[in-house]
Known about the structure:
Blueprint: H1 3-40, H2 46-85, H3 90-101, H4 106-113, H5 117-139
Keywords: Coiled coil
Pfam families: DUF1492
Protein name: RNA polymerase sigma-70 region 4 domain-containing protein
Amino acid sequence: MTAKEYLSQLLNLERLIEAKRLECERLDTMSKKVSSTLSECKVEASHDNDKNAVIIIHMIDLKKDISEQMKVYAELQAKISKEIDDVEDIRYRSLLIMRYINGLKFGDIADKMNYGTRWVLILHREALKEFDRLHGERYCA
């Protein structure tokens, strides 16, 4: 695993959590549609009740999974933040935090650091080399 892959775990986990949140919202909307359809019906509709129950059970499972992923995310963020803090060059440290902890794009990082995007990409490459020098043995398999 490279330094970039190691640090990107946090962003990837954040994207996964967000995807699961969106799925949960979608299921919530579906369950409300099924419920409102049921309340308008005068006839017994056990099949629709079963659908709603399945949706709600899936939502509960998703929320548990999201909660577990959030715990993993918090632990990983604390670990990676601490490792980034070991980088001595403040430019490298700032760049790595903005990119991998805050999830900023390189153009936004360039604006915040008052550098050109190309220079930020060069600094990023050097920051990854420094991070790898300090911590490479921990995540290389």
